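In practice, a research group might receive sequence data for several interacting partners and want a quick structural hypothesis before committing to experiments. The following worked case mirrors that situation: the sequences arrive first, and a predicted assembly follows.
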Amino acid sequence: MKFKRFVATATALVIASSLFVGCGKKEEQSTEQPKQEKVTITLGCWGSSPAETQLLDDQIKKFEETHPNIKIEKQVITGDYNQAMQAKIASKTEPDVYYLDVFQAPAYISKGVVEPLDSYLDMEDVKDFEEFLLEGFKKDGKIYGLPKDFNSLAIFYNKEMFEKAGVKEPTTWAELEEAAKKLTKDGVYGMALSADAARFIPFMLQAGGKINEGDNVAFNTPEAAKGLDFYFSLIKKGYAKQPKDLGEGWNGDALAHKKVAMVIEGGWMIPFMKDAGPDVKYGIAKLPKGDKEGNLAFTVAYAMSVNSKHKKEAAEVIKFLTGKEALKMVAESGLAIPSRKSMEKLYTEKYPERTPLVEGTKGAQVFQFGANTTKIMDALNKAGEKLLFNKVKDGKAALEEAAKEVGQ
Amino acid sequence: MSSKKGTLSRVKTREKIDGWLFVMPFVISTLVFFAGPLVVAFILSFKEYSFLDQNTIWQAKWVGFDNYINAFKDPIFKRALLNTTLYSLGVVPIQLVIALILALIVDSDIKGKTFFRVAYYIPTVTSTVAVSVMFMFIFKTDGLLNKFLKLFGIPPYNWFGDVRLALPSIMGMAIWSSVGLYMIIFLAGLQDIPHSLYEAAWIDGANKWQQFWYVTLPLLRPTFFFNLVVSLIGTFQVFDQAYVVSGGNGGPLNSTMTVVLYLYRTGFRDFKMGYACAIAFILFAIIFILTLIQKKLFGEETQYQ
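A structural hypothesis for the assembly, expressed as tokens:
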């Protein structure tokens, strides 16, 4: 009887204590590894299309073939990547190497959670990266991430509609408006435009405006307002419609469902159109020129955690995944534009029709606006909505209100 | 005698220990996953902290009541609070009335009542995200609702894209999706009312309406109170519908920004976890006070038997 009790008590205690152990920190692995022992580097990324997943898997496979002492363990983070990553960083369980979106980079870098990579890099080789991309991951001259690839915006247009209306690829604002006007007929609109700052910022840049100057707001200028006013004038004149007003989820749907003749989107449209609108013959044209060229570039880098226990090996992984061999695979896949200048040619040679995407990066700025990036984006998005709902009289007023909001 | 008593008390102590051991997994998980985070969040609400900080929660800078004071100066928070209040004022009464009517229907002797009970309850067990996506299809510009309205000559509308209509649209969705839950609870309350009371009322000459008014409603009071509290708490914590419909930004023009959505954004997007915790505790205080008021108004236990 007593023995039975003892066993029961002991079991309960073991169960209870195992709960504690589960919550506690994992035992640190011994840092003194024998030379030949395999090191595992965890790689954090978000889930993406099957084609992109395949590309990363192929890159990893190639890495492991050439680096027998390092194993890469991929951790696909589903759901809200930024949220999940913060929780991991707070509990110091983040992967050694992970995707860092240029949009989030200032916050991560200024909080000191990513390791500067300079000491691991060959500075001559770094010159091969597109500078404006690298800029997005720099702080005080140090490099905190190497961009893996990027995409910029371009006009994706329906070729048949263009032929029918006798319209050529627009190269200036005036031509864009003229084309949109001509293409708006028979229930089809010239363009799909959304009140999204990530789409109208290029126009503000094209008008000679700026978004930020370092960590300060610089968009409350007449130039920036001119770009904003032009963008929304296309909607107000009836040549363009918001995708939501057409019953579509986003610009891509509107083009795929032949409800509009033009949309402003990036390279992600290519795999999307293959699935959603295989019968739509589309062309890609550079964004039109205002007073000058202007565009946004969306990029993601590989960054290293400051808490990584195998920094040397983690750096090897980053260098390989952004190296020429891996980026050659990116170029050939055509999924995004490789971040190295030497590889862009490979991309445009294999996919000549996508050349406008690469050419459009002249005058492009990365999708990041200093330390106040999220605030600036919120304020600009709201400025766009205010214009759309006629809550302000013009772009200038909208931008002034937005600048005040960021200042708060 | 005395030795027997001693054994008895020993047995009792043993039983107490055993009892605690049995509930230990639950107690520990509650402490670790609920009470602990609650305390930490409360402390954080007085600090300046983000998950990306390299220093720990304890080392983070103490800012006193600044987070709380800032919240009441923050125009977006005030807007979120207003939206949430409007949402709650709209959803709670309509939801409870409909739920009560449905409960009365499925409690009566209509044919196929089991079917209806299940049918009304299905939205409740459906994920709110799935419901939101479905409603986005119904409410979109060329969606079902607009096609239906077109039959009466009403032009199509971008419901979720309109500053004035976005929040009411979400309210409609919330009512539809959660009414089943309250119906089930009302149904349980209705079936708890002894049949003899209705018989007595009937003998006294009360008609159906009088029976409802003087027997059903007063006896349903505890159930009603429970539903009111749960529904109010639920509506004040609305998050997922607003998140899905607005794509996470509370738009258009903050018209669907709710307190919890704003809290989520400040914590995870603007990296101000301390401020987000302060907002959470303000929300807690509001819900707590409202619940106390409701208890005062509806909560007295009355026995009719």
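Before designing any experiment, note the following. Chain B touches chain A through 33 residues (CB under 8 Å). DSSP finds 13 helices and two strands in chain B.
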